[in-house]
Design brief:
globular; 6-stranded mixed beta sheet; single chain
């Protein structure tokens, strides 16, 4: 079984479309999402529609909750707040209700999904280093957990001490637990502008962190045309 993992889409339709086409080409059996479908980008409605159609499991990100009033806006920087206000005005009641109903955590036998950390998931804590990964590991039940939030693809391994890797192909070695940042579809921040996603191959017992190019110029122009902060358009080509 192959599972495609996406997240941090942030209203970027061109990136999402490219990633979904890539996952179709890989013949994944299912697609799951670690949240932040909206925020920053100019196509929130279309991205919600695609995720609702294609993903079998979705958890809430802080931007998803922000646009429906379930996350305090003082959590966000000024550009993010501007985008959240802009997005909230464009969503239908149906889309708002769907975002509001998203859970913070999804569990199954093979993997777990969370946007930030499994430790106090509603606090949306960042995991950048092994020390920050430790509390999440303490609450992880499945062999593999996927998260996002930092927009940095990275893998952490439970142990003494917790260690991490930025390799692109990671073998799963039970009985240890693995915590995987699936990368950002719509706003990578690791100096690589290509859209990020992950494939979990349960037969090969591997996790593949993947990238694919998309039409950055079109996405950036849409952001500018919408009157959103120019920084949100400029950062896309820099992967920052």
């Amino acid at each position: 079984m192959k599972v495609g993992v996406i997240g941090d889409i942030h209203g970027n339709l061109e990136a999402l479309t490219s990633v979904l086409e890539a996952l179709d080409g890989e013949k994944v059996d299912t697609i799951v999402c670690v949240g932040d479908i909206v925020g920053y980008g100019a196509d929130p409605e279309a991205c919600i529609a695609l995720v609702r159609e294609r993903a079998s499991a979705v958890v809430a990100g802080n931007h998803d909750y922000g646009v429906v009033g379930k996350q305090a806006l003082d959590y966000f920087n000024p550009a993010a707040r501007t985008a959240i206000h802009w997005t909230a005005k464009r969503l239908s009641e149906e889309d708002r209700g769907w975002l509001s109903g998203l859970p913070l955590v999804h569990e199954c036998n093979e993997y777990e999904l969370v946007h930030a950390s499994l430790f106090q998931p509603g606090e949306f804590r960042y995991i950048f280093n092994p020390e920050e990964a430790g509390p999440s590991f303490a609450r992880q039940k499945a062999p593999v957990a996927f998260f996002g939030h930092t927009h940095w693809p990275m893998v952490f391994f439970d142990g003494e001490p917790v260690r991490h890797s930025i390799q692109r192909v990671i073998p799963l070695e039970p009985p240890g637990k693995v915590l995987v940042n699936a990368g950002s579809v719509g706003q990578p921040r690791d100096s690589n502008p290509a859209a990020g996603y992950t494939v979990l191959d349960l037969e090969e017992e591997r996790v593949h962190l993947k990238r694919i190019d998309y039409d950055v110029r079109t996405t950036a122009k849409k952001i500018l045309d919408a009157g959103l902060p120019a920084f949100l358009a400029e950062r896309l080509s820099l992967g920052y």
